[in-house]
Specification:
15 helices; Metallo-beta-lactamase, Chain A; globular; Oxidized Rhodanese, domain 1; six-stranded mixed sheet
Length: about 475
């Protein structure tokens, strides 16, 4: 048996290639939209991809089932409760897919969404080996799937949570402790609230340490998994719906070579409404960037923030480091942002002779910010972390406006004084400072290292006023 996990750090997302070397057949589970890696790996292993299975209609990324169907002729499989525009094999509870010496057993596990399934993988050629179970968004390492996203309409979070309890206790937890759990996501995903950075675990370890699997009544479980869930990004509903539809393939919307644009063309399109997105490191962006550009650095949760903040209907122009233009565009396409007009040819070097087109903003270290807060003209402190993060600790006197709500709440932020933005580590604050600057705030600054750096130096620093 061949089983390989493909883990995508920027989306905290896992997909799987499962194959049987004797028959040369393979299945891909929960692929991302750019599918070359699965096809190339299958070819290296002498496997032919015959099926592609989605454990549910994913909300946080656009899956690659359409691409694999059209590229290699794979048959699409979905949980039998799913409804989609394209033909698919409905997979019912107890269904079995035979791949030579590999057997896939379908478990219907509604809860995260109504159509959720898990897949038990057995190696018939080595029956002494523990089985694996691909749990999608039903069971994570350290957590369970949140039931409040309602990727399929008509189901309340409370009802789905009750179904999730039954799916866990009547299905997944009947498997042996030695069964290896392979989830659909890890730490950083908003599909749960307490996920581990581990990408697999024996089921027995989860039975012992996962907070949601501890002995409790169904009512207690429902309250536990519905309380304190982080707000879902706005693009989740769009992506879940897109995964049900006969949509455009990534190769149809993203050419092999992106269009290079001159500085004058970038300025013209920006004036006409295009969004200019600078994917460089926040430090580089703060030092010098094109007027009106927004920072969403490739080094952080780039795709998620692009999906949350950008207008899918307006053209997007990329400002990148040389050679990463396509990578930046592909990551956007993974969350359904396809309207890429091109990229600034030559990157920031193209603006070198036009200082009138450059902007910058200052970044404070914790020590410098503490000094500034003693001044009579101390800056207004803006915390752009999620509300739950701010409740765990904040800089005294700061106002909390989560980044995904910043533009709609600009009237809460003064324009007549310096505004210093902070987040957890400095990534989101650079985005926020750029948004403020693009909305004619003349004195945005941000905190290098964010609240984490502030808290780490707090013991040795004087108290904030």
């Amino acid at each position: 048996m061949f089983l390989k996990q493909f883990y995508l750090d920027c989306l905290a997302q896992a997909s799987y290639l499962i194959g049987d070397e004797t028959s040369g057949t393979a299945v891909v589970v929960d692929p991302r939209r750019d599918v070359d890696e699965y096809i190339e790996e299958a070819q290296r292993q002498g496997l032919s991809i015959k099926r592609v299975i989605l454990t549910h209609f994913h909300a946080d990324f656009v899956a690659g089932h359409i691409e694999l169907r059209d590229r290699v002729g794979a048959r699409i499989g979905l949980g039998a409760a799913g409804v989609a525009d394209y033909p698919f094999d409905p997979l019912h509870d107890g269904d079995v897919i035979e791949l030579g010496q590999v057997r896939l057993e379908i478990m219907a596990t509604p809860g995260h969404t109504p159509e959720c399934i898990c897949i038990v993988v057995r190696n018939l050629g080595a029956p002494e080996d523990p089985a694996a179970v691909l749990t999608g968004d039903t069971l994570f390492i350290g957590d369970v799937g949140r039931p409040d996203l309602m990727a399929s309409p008509g189901s309340s979070a409370t009802n789905l949570a009750a179904q999730l309890y039954d799916s866990l206790h009547q299905k997944l937890l009947t498997l042996p402790d030695e069964t290896i759990v392979y989830p659909g996501h890890g730490a950083g995903s908003l599909c749960g609230k307490n996920m581990s950075s581990d990408t697999s675990s024996p089921l027995g370890v989860q039975r012992r340490y996962n907070y949601a699997l501890q002995p409790m009544s169904k009512d207690q479980f429902v309250r536990l998994v519905t309380d304190d869930q982080p707000e879902a990004p706005a693009y989740f509903a769009y992506d879940a719906d897109l995964n049900r539809r006969e949509r455009s393939r990534i190769e149809d919307v993203l050419p092999a070579e992106l269009r290079p644009l001159s500085l004058n063309e970038v300025l013209k399109q920006h004036q006409a409404g295009a969004q200019v997105i600078d994917v460089r490191d926040p430090g580089e962006f703060s030092a010098a960037h094109l007027v009106g550009a927004i920072s969403i650095g490739l080094g952080g949760q780039y795709a998620s923030w692009a999906g949350s903040l950008l207008d899918r209907e307006r053209p997007i122009i990329l400002v990148t480091m040389p050679g990463v233009e396509r990578e930046a565009a592909v990551r956007m396409a993974r969350v359904g942002i396809d309207n890429i007009a091109g990229y600034l040819d030559g990157g920031m070097a193209a603006v070198r002779e036009r200082p009138d087109l450059l902007q910058s903003f200052s970044r404070y270290t914790p020590a410098t910010l503490r000094e500034r807060l003693q001044d009579p003209d101390a800056p207004f402190l803006l915390d752009v972390r999620r509300e739950g993060e701010a409740q765990m600790g904040k800089i005294e006197g700061s106002a909390n406006v989560p980044l995904n709500h910043l533009e709609e709440r600009l009237d809460e932020i003064p324009r007549d004084r310096e505004v210093t933005v902070y987040c957890a580590g400095g990534y989101r604050s650079a985005i926020a400072a750029a948004i403020l600057q693009a909305n004619d705030y003349t004195q945005p600054t941000d905190l290098v290292g964010g609240y984490n750096a502030w808290a780490a130096t707090a013991a040795a620093a004087p108290s904030s006023p």
